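Would you kindly consider the sequence and fold I have copied below?
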Amino acid sequence: MAFSLLLFAGMLVPIGLTLFLGEWVFGSMGWGILHGTEVSVAGALVLVVVALGIDAGVVVGSLVVGTVVGVLVAVVLALNLTNRGWTWVGDQVAGNVAAENRPLVVGVVVLAVVFGALGLLLGLASRSVANVIRGLVIGVLLGAGVGAVTAIALSVQVAAAIGLSVGLLAWTVAVAFGAFRSGIDTEALKARFMPSATIDTTKESIEWIRERAPMGRR
């Protein structure tokens, strides 16, 4: 019972802290859930990469990439640069759409088409009808989501939360990609985790015992 309570306390503190920080810093506990999940996934991946003996530079470099990407996204969204961009595009090509909805409509439609086309091309490369349909649907949905986020004029608080989310995601992807490029040295991994010296010593001890006390036939 005591161990269960300690385990509960150990889980409650980090979970409660992420929810509190999400509400306090970004205005919603949902951000705490999202950021806490991303940090957990990224941390687990980093531990696996380190355990596999991959160069620590991969982790550090990936962290730098994630930080730069997150900061750029946060700054761009906080300054409403994408909203202004979609507003300008909408004024040029969609003058018949209501002004208050113009950036959102243009952003969603344009990026849905672009991402959908990219997903379609990736599906065609696999030469599978199912992958073509899947790529098209995922591309359209992803593009529409990105278009909506970039078309809305966001507050600094929300922009910072999105920037942190994107930065953590970029860090995770960069770590995975860097580990994949570096490859895994199976021989070094085997030498690191397999107690070769102990095994050799044990074999020598067994041979020594056999020489000193040979087993007779019965």
Notes: Residues 1-181 form one domain.
